[in-house]
Design a protein that fits this description.
By secondary structure, this protein is an alpha+beta fold. The chain is built from six helices and nine strands. The protein has one domain. Strands 2-1-6-5-4-3-7-8-9 form a nine-stranded antiparallel sheet. The radius of gyration is 21 Å and the shape is globular.
Length: 248
Amino acid sequence: MNTKRFLLSVIGLLICVLLIFGWVKYNEGGPLPYPISIGSFFTIGSAIIDPTTLLEDVRNGNEPLLQQVQSGIPEDAPFVMTIGWSQDDYFAIAHVLHKAIWRDDPNEWHFYRAIFHIGCENPNGKFESAMLYYYQEVKEDGKRMYSVRAISIEPQYGYAAWGGDTFYPRPIIGGWTEIDLDKITKVPAEKALALAEQQGGINIRRRVSNACWIHINMWPWGYERSDWMVTYGGNIDLPNDEFWIPAK
């Protein structure tokens, strides 16, 4: 019995080694296995948007005016104001921007990751910025790959940026996990923030006199769970404190 168990363990170890070796060879010379920012993409664009009219234009079905600029928020940005939008606002705006930028159907892309940001001084669930990622499975040079895109929206500066035309390797086993939009409609990012505040977030903010930031993040594949991670950070006296909020 012990010999049989030993042999099974050896076989299992060899399989793991082969899978790791295959993954390394599959990605050899390629990009990182997943995007981490707009800078992860081969094609990058950015534009000035009018935050005072953009949301109304989206709701009225009008295509937004994108005044393209060089990468980075301009030093003389025409809009610097306190503006906060809800999760659904950002989703609707990103949908329209997606069509305006790439001229194809956003519904053919899977929603992969969502990050919302707000300062600790006013955690009211109206977020100052958002970063949204999407992917689509394709074949590139005979390999199964993910074509990935991302949109960053910062209404307080009237600024949007995007990245695309970049391929990432599809994992040999399994694949990336799509965000279930039905779940996060029931428990949106603003509700996740409110629950995190109740569970101790408010005490964290008080400890540093609101000199911090809050990220509300969902990444089912990266975190191996389809829940919200609410993180408080950005202060030397405040190591990143996080709360897991179920999205159901």
